[in-house]
Design a protein that fits this description.
The complex is a heterodimer. Chain A is mainly beta. Chain A has a single domain, classed as Immunoglobulins (Immunoglobulin-like, Sandwich). Helix content of chain A is 0%, strand content 48%. Chain A contains no helices and eleven strands. Chain B is mainly β. Chain B has a single domain (3-118), classed as Immunoglobulin-like (Sandwich), CATH 2.60.40.10. Chain B is 0% helix and 51% strand. Chain B contains no helices and twelve strands. In chain B, strands 2, 5, 6, 10, 11 and 12 form a six-stranded mixed sheet that branches. Chain B is globular, with a radius of gyration of 14 Å. Chain B starts with a strand and ends with a strand. Classes of the chains: A mainly beta, B mainly beta.
Chain lengths: 115, 119
């Protein structure tokens, strides 16, 4: 079974440019998470989806960040415009709410560098 | 809000020896899970071990075991017979199991501990 897929793996952009990250969760997983991981730090939740509904987006900087999960499957996280401080790894995870442990499975992440 | 603290930024161990990574957390909830995740340079976050708060018995997974002290809010990871492949960043994480809250399912991570294994 395929794991969580993210693309691209690496992205380098100039500041003020837009950027988008894509995540394909494990088939059947109804919950999807986007985490931000700064260098040398633990991940921090940006947004959590239950199916297509964003149920926790309290940590998402809504002035420049947006996310969507159309049809409750794939998700896209967008930054517009990007700032130098957005350089980080963006992790996507998914889980099946209703499973024994509701375990989150992580993708490999997208490393963003803003110049 | 819950917090997770890992006070050891770096640890090192000789191959085949034992090492313990420390973690403390703060919560007012009674129903939660605690986890240890491993993140190698490839960035793939891998679950090492989980502990349910209502279980008094410490979890074990092969060479990995935890010392869960609920009253002290302490959750340490012991790695026995360390192997070169254990070298990675290790994160302690907390997850609320309060289904009525918006934080349900959200993982709160510590700052991480870099583990180096010397041959």
């Amino acid at each position: 079974e395929a794991g969580v897929v993210q693309s691209p793996r690496y992205k380098i952009i100039e500041k003020k440019q837009p950027v988008a990250f894509w995540c394909n969760p494990i088939s059947g997983h109804n919950t999807l998470y986007w985490y931000l991981q700064n260098l040398g730090q633990g991940p921090e939740l940006l947004i959590r989806y239950e199916n297509e509904e964003a149920v926790d987006d309290s940590q998402l900087p809504k002035d420049r960040f947006s996310a969507e999960r159309l049809k409750g499957v794939d998700s896209t996280l967008k930054i517009q415009p990007a700032e130098l401080g957005d350089s980080a790894v963006y992790l996507c995870a998914s889980s099946y709410r209703g499973s024994s442990y509701n375990e989150q499975f992580f993708g490999p992440g997208t490393r963003l560098t803003v110049l | 809000a819950q917090t997770v603290t890992q006070s050891q930024p770096e640890m090192s161990v000789q191959e085949a020896e034992t090492v313990t990574l420390s973690c403390t957390y703060d919560t007012s909830e009674s129903d939660y899970y605690l986890f240890w995740y491993k993140q190698p340079p490839s960035r793939q976050m891998i679950l090492v071990i989980r502990q349910e708060a209502y279980k008094q018995q410490n979890a074990t997974e092969n060479r990995f075991s935890v010392n869960f002290q609920k009253a002290a809010k302490s959750f340490s990871l012991k790695i026995s017979d360390s192997q070169l492949g254990d070298a990675a960043m290790y994160f302690c994480a907390y997850r609320s199991e309060y289904a009525g809250g918006t934080s349900y399912g959200k993982l709160t991570f510590g700052q991480g501990t870099i583990l180096t294994v010397h041959p």
